[in-house]
TrEMBL record:
Species the sequence originates in: Mucilaginibacter robiniae
Entry keyword annotation includes Transmembrane helix: yes
Membrane-spanning segments: 44-62
Protein name according to UniProt: DUF4157 domain-containing protein
Keywords linked to the UniProt accession: Membrane, Transmembrane, Transmembrane helix
Length: 103
């Protein structure tokens, strides 16, 4: 779904993947990154995923005192960024794989 006022290239809001531009909807890296978030949300039964995501961000914001560092160190984002370029990742991804990305 294209949302032109979106401030980022892509965003997963279960069950939708939102993108800023029509071309982003065909970018395999963006789509894979957001699909990883969909898998994370599904395995945590959706609402707990978003609560854990927010709590991890707030903890990181306190720890790093910087929005960008806090965001990039969310365990869910660490998995998604690390694996977004692997075209086979979603086929062999383990259940709760994000747990291996805690620092």
């Amino acid at each position: 779904m294209v949302v032109r006022r979106l401030k980022v290239s892509g965003m997963a809001v279960y069950p939708f993947i939102l993108v800023q531009k029509p071309t982003d909807a065909h970018d395999p890296v963006i789509i894979r990154h957001e699909t990883i978030h969909m898998k994370q949300a599904e395995e945590l039964f959706i609402i707990p995923f978003y609560l854990l995501y927010l709590l991890n961000y707030l903890f990181n914001l306190y720890k790093y005192r910087n929005h960008d560092q806090a965001y990039l160190n969310i365990v869910f984002e660490r998995e998604a960024y690390r694996c977004e370029r692997d075209s086979t990742y979603l086929q062999h991804r383990r259940l709760w794989a994000w747990r291996f990305y805690f620092k």
